[in-house]
Amino acid sequence: MMDLLQGPVAQWLERPAHNRLVAGSIPARPTTLSVVEAALSAAPIQPRMFFVYILISEKDRRLYIGLSENVARRLDQHNSGFVIATKNRRPFKLLLTESYSELADAKRRDKYFKGGNGHNNLKIQIQDALMKNNYKYL
Q: Domain locations in the chain?
C-alpha cells in the first residue's frame, strides 16, 4: 500500500486540484466569483416601492386616483388610452404621488383617498394645485 502512495498516486495527488481528472466527472473550472455573486456585487438590490398617484383630467377637470409601481409608465398608459376607466377623459396631468415600501399600506391609502372623507381631505391638502388647474368640484 505504501508503494502506491509513493508512485503514480503520489504524483497524481501532487497535481493542482483543478487539473485532476476523475473518471466519469467533469472537472470544475477555477473561478474567483460565481456569475451570481458578480451580478449581485455589481448592482445593489433596489427595494420595491409602491405609489399612490393623483391625476387631473385636462378634459373634464376631474380627479383620478390610482396605485402603481411605475408612475411614469402608468401615466403614459392613461394618456395613450390603454386604461378603460380613463380612456374618454384624456389627457391627464400628474398632481401628487405618495410612495410606500409595503403594498398593503399603498392599497390602504388608495382606498382612503377614493372614499368620501379621504377624498374631501385630499382636496383640502392639495387645494392650491387644484385651483391652479381649474378643478371642477372645489
A: 50-132
> What phi and psi, each to the nearest 5 degrees, are found at residue 64?
-130, 130
- What lies within 8 Å, CB to CB, of 133 at 6+ separation is 56, 61, 93, 95
Closest by CA to 88, choosing from 65, 60, 130, is 60
Tell me the whole-structure pTM to 2 decimals.
0.67
Name the pLDDT band for 9 (thresholds 50, 70, 90): low
What are 86-115's pLDDT values in tens digits? 999 999 999 999 999 999 999 999 999 999
Q: How far apart are CA 26 and CA 43, in angstroms?
A: 32
What's 50-132's CATH class?
A: alpha beta
Of 77, 33, 24, nearest to 55 by C-alpha is 77
List Cβ neighbours of 87 (8 Å cut-off, separation of 6 or more). Answer: 81
Cα Rg for the chain, rounded, in angstroms?
31
pLDDT on residue 120: 94
Place of cell 411605475: 70
**C-alpha span between 100 and 21 (Å, rounded):** 55
